[in-house]
Amino acid sequence: SQQGEEDPQALSIQEGENATMNCSYKTSINNLQWYRQNSGRGLVHLILIRSNEREKHSGRLRVTLDTSKKSSSLLITASRAADTASYFCGTSYGKLTFGQGTILTVHP
Amino acid sequence: EAQVTQNPRYLITVTGKKLTVTCSQNMNHEYMSWYRQDPGLGLRQIYYSMNVEVTDKGDVPEGYKVSRKEKRNFPLILESPSPNQTSLYFCASSLGGGPDEQYFGPGTRLTVT
User: Fold this and answer.
1) What CA–CA distance (Å, rounded) separates A85 from A40?
2) Which residue out of A95, A98, A100, A102 would a mutagenesis test of the B interface target, given it has the greatest number of B Cβ atoms within 10 Å?
3) Could you tell me the CA-to-CA distances from B111 to B23, B45, B83, B97, B108 in Å, in that order?
4) CA A56: distance to chain centroid?
């Protein structure tokens, strides 16, 4: 069963703008992970946030987790054309379950 | 270079002809997993292995088999492929015994006619 659901399904922005993607899930988790996928290629791990953490940063990425609302958000600041990709959240509780992803397009 | 490799990368086959997709990692990872990716359905886990000789079903295991005889290899076997197994398949591995911070292979695009 799919646990994480990303929102929006697609996001189109200009270079330099911030991009925010959201993930909602239904049951308990150990951690939540965000991955990036460039057109048909393998996923690349971006950041992992544990259930007892509320916020985490990695370079231009900021992830928040609200376990009471069962939701997470991924913020990419000062986006670049190279950030164009699909972004997936994966919820981990023994195994990792992915949502359908957000397609981000960053226009130069 | 640390990586997960899959072979073949592309495969067109016919219904019922047994096939194996190999997966190998060179990072001494404990955990390995197979996913399939389909439009509108996202990534779904087929099987996973927490360490050698230990495998378990994911969300969509029907029609697939796996084995983990060695730490580095985790082949996916389709005994009698059917058209509904046409998909993009990914192997992944991670250091610990769980699916944290997985490294993904480049994918195998399988078409079953």
Assistant:
1) 10
2) A95
3) 18, 19, 7, 32, 10
4) 12
The Cα A65–Cα A56 span in angstroms is 9
Angle made by CA atoms A27, B37, A60, in degrees to the nearest 5: 70
Is residue A9 within 8 angstroms of chain B, CB to CB? no
**Tens of pLDDT along chain B (113 residues)?**
889 999 999 999 999 999 999 999 999 999 999 999 999 888 999 999 999 989 999 999 999 999 999 999 999 999 999 999 999 999 999 998 889 999 999 999 999 99
* DSSP string for B52-113: TTEEEE-S--TT-EE--SSSSB--EEESS--GGG-EEEEEEEESSSS-SSPEE---EEEEE-
